[in-house]
What does this fold into?
Amino acid sequence: AQTVTQSQPEMSVQEAETVTLSCTYDTSESDYYLFWYKQPPSRQMILVIRQEAYKQQNATENRFSVNFQKAAKSFSLKISDSQLGDAAMYFCAYQGNDMRFGAGTRLTVKP
Amino acid sequence: KAGVTQTPRYLIKTRGQQVTLSCSPISGHRSVSWYQQTPGQGLQFLFEYFSETQRNKGNFPGRFSGRQFSNSRSEMNVSTLELGDSALYLCASSLGQIGVTDTQYFGPGTRLTVL
It folds into this structure.
């Protein structure tokens, strides 16, 4: 079965600094997608970034980028120039035959 | 385009009752998935519907069921409610293209409290 592990229950970053959230996954599938979702206090899940496993190039969306290491089954999220609005729970998700989520990392942004 | 909508947003029920939650997907999306989110278990996949058929199912008891209508709107039903069913129920929609993994967009959720 596919599992998704986020080893950092909580992270903290100073405003304008950079933070990296870790995610590893386990799978025997060759074709899959990986996602980072953000869940602010409003509880609305918001897509941050997505990575297709067949693509070697790391996905980037403005201040958000990923470091995708397929052989190591690692998918970390880097947030640059952190803003107060980035404070939220971040979930790493794997989508192959089904969709699985990690336990989440709570990110705090200090002014 | 309007996002995914879920009704009601909050619900309080007592043990033994049943409940129906509704989800309207983004226009044009044909796949609707349901998830249960609790502090202890995190986000867990319940089931996915596509073109009025259940396409995928998670590991939940038969008390949890769903259906999808011809307009892609979906309902989820939980019968004989238990205290442990208290959770945030999230619905997500996607285009649902066959053979293609596409992005899911989530609704705001329905907060169910079972007393």
Remarks:
- The longest strand of chain B covers residues 42-50.
- The mean pLDDT of chain B is 93.
- The radius of gyration of chain B is 13 Å.
- Chain B has no helices and eleven strands.
